[in-house]
Amino acid sequence: MIRTLSYAALSGTLLLSVNASAKDTTTQQYIDTLTELGYPAPKGNELVHIPPTMEDLESAKLHPELKRVIRRGYDLFTNTQQLRGENVFNNMNCSSCHLGEGRMPFSAPVWPAAVTLPNFRGKNDHVNNLEERIAGCFTYSMNGKPPEYGSDNMLAISAYHQWLAKGVAMYPEQPIYGRGFPAPDRPEELSYARGEAAFEEKCSVCHGNYGEGLRVGSETVFPATWGDMSNNWGAGIVRIFTAAGFIKNNMPLGQPNSLSDQESWDIAYYMSNQERPQDPRYTGDVAETLKNTEARFHKHSMYGQTRETDGHVLGDHRNTGEKPFLKPDSIRSRTFE
Amino acid sequence: MKKIPILLTAFGLSSCSAWVFAEADAERGAASAAMCMACHQADGGGMNIAGGESWPRLAGLSATYISKQLHDYKSGARSNASMIPFASMLDEQQIEDVAAYYASLPATQGKGSEGADEATLNRGQQLAERGDWSAYIVSCKSCHGSDSQGAGGDFPGISGQHAGYIEAQLQAWKAGNRKNDTQDLMGSIARRMSDDDIHAVAVWLASQSPAGN
């Protein structure tokens, strides 16, 4: 049997396949759909995994009670606002950033966390498991307080992550296709004015002229891109390259890869120049906080920098938004001593 | 609201002067709407016409959305042989009044889902509520709001709209005959939908409650 390069590249994810050629065709169609949308094809030996859908769950050979828990995890992931005031203190859902219910490549698909953790994480300088990684999203992106480790909700959200990783080997050695929000090359110059203009032209119909987003009743339709109802200064997406990668690969909704690299970076730069709730790692002093977090995080954001348009020092405030505390108790360093 | 005058300028209408009119008045709008009733009905419920041109329900839709559509018929940004002559008879004040009038009416239930089979309805529900990301078809609710009952003035309520109207509009977007949506947001999705998908989502939406627009 002659195996194409792409087949060889994919075989690592298809070990359980009973009909390799049918799976190969499915995977090729999956890649074709993505490349038609402007995404790059897998390079070299990148691991391509097609996460199962909720329809697949119904026919899966799993205990009915586990299916019920995975459905609960899906429901929490796509409507995280049901935890508002308890774990979530802004307008975000998990699926606000992880598009396609956490399944889409180039939109920080969440299944890699289930097969690559526990692992060392630079952001907090210790080994994290899946629950602690999810806790990070609640702490920063939801400006909130994570569901307790081992709680029903935490277990359900974890179960949904693991379900999406079904069939992938633990600790894969290959790089993962479409992981994270891959950023386009950084242009030479970023412009606040161009970013502002592009935001008004391309983003404001949904996210509002002031980044406020749009809610209908108690549900978020379009998330806030900055301000009290958005993620706080500690969320990964405040890093300009992460935001640029998110925007380029996913925005405007339904039109991935339609913005130029320059537009994506300019919009990301403009967004990183707006205020949002304080970083939970705040020590009481913005300069000190920046010093503590710069090397591994804030060197990529505008936190602690002076905004060129009005001289405002970004992040120099004690505003925690709707959240009545700065830092959740469960967020702590680990030494394993 | 900064963008609205810009939008009007883009469609060749006066920018600032358009807003020097008296406040929209639903009661005045009722008088102007007399000519709309032959198709859109006295209750604003429109009519689903199987195999023909369905007339949309206007009752309970966003006034901003209705006003934009009437402006677009006048300017040619939206094309429809039946609507253009009527829209052209309305002046700026009348457009705002008619829009306010229909927005004030209680929403009525859409038709066209009767007799649809379960598989079609299930597929329609999937597209409306979760989308089909394998084809990059994002869900209706991700822009049209929870339960697709509308979100702001740009994203109309489509839940409880007539199936025939929704299907015709999605087909028009797919074929490029309708393109007055902001930034091609609807067009880029419609072009990825099969005829079966368009039919399925139209009948499922028609079967849902229009309340809350």
TrEMBL record, chain A:
<feature type="signal peptide">
    <location>
        <begin position="1"/>
        <end position="22"/>
    </location>
</feature>
<dbReference type="InterPro" id="IPR009056">
    <property type="entry name" value="Cyt_c-like_dom"/>
</dbReference>
<keyword id="KW-0732">Signal</keyword>
<feature type="domain" description="Cytochrome c">
    <location>
        <begin position="80"/>
        <end position="275"/>
    </location>
</feature>
<dbReference type="InterPro" id="IPR036909">
    <property type="entry name" value="Cyt_c-like_dom_sf"/>
</dbReference>
<dbReference type="InterPro" id="IPR051459">
    <property type="entry name" value="Cytochrome_c-type_DH"/>
</dbReference>
<keyword id="KW-0479">Metal-binding</keyword>
<feature type="compositionally biased region" description="Basic and acidic residues">
    <location>
        <begin position="307"/>
        <end position="337"/>
    </location>
</feature>
<dbReference type="Pfam" id="PF13442">
    <property type="entry name" value="Cytochrome_CBB3"/>
</dbReference>
<protein>
    <submittedName>
        <fullName>C-type cytochrome</fullName>
    </submittedName>
</protein>
<dbReference type="Pfam" id="PF21342">
    <property type="entry name" value="SoxA-TsdA_cyt-c"/>
</dbReference>
<keyword id="KW-0349">Heme</keyword>
<keyword id="KW-0408">Iron</keyword>
<feature type="region of interest" description="Disordered">
    <location>
        <begin position="305"/>
        <end position="337"/>
    </location>
</feature>
UniProtKB/TrEMBL annotation, chain B:
<dbReference type="InterPro" id="IPR009056">
    <property type="entry name" value="Cyt_c-like_dom"/>
</dbReference>
<feature type="domain" description="Cytochrome c">
    <location>
        <begin position="24"/>
        <end position="106"/>
    </location>
</feature>
<dbReference type="InterPro" id="IPR050597">
    <property type="entry name" value="Cytochrome_c_Oxidase_Subunit"/>
</dbReference>
<keyword id="KW-0813">Transport</keyword>
<keyword id="KW-0349">Heme</keyword>
<protein>
    <submittedName>
        <fullName>C-type cytochrome</fullName>
    </submittedName>
</protein>
<keyword id="KW-0479">Metal-binding</keyword>
<keyword id="KW-0408">Iron</keyword>
<dbReference type="InterPro" id="IPR036909">
    <property type="entry name" value="Cyt_c-like_dom_sf"/>
</dbReference>
<feature type="domain" description="Cytochrome c">
    <location>
        <begin position="119"/>
        <end position="209"/>
    </location>
</feature>
<keyword id="KW-0732">Signal</keyword>
<feature type="signal peptide">
    <location>
        <begin position="1"/>
        <end position="22"/>
    </location>
</feature>
<keyword id="KW-0574">Periplasm</keyword>
<keyword id="KW-0249">Electron transport</keyword>
<dbReference type="Pfam" id="PF00034">
    <property type="entry name" value="Cytochrom_C"/>
</dbReference>
<dbReference type="InterPro" id="IPR024167">
    <property type="entry name" value="Cytochrome_c4-like"/>
</dbReference>
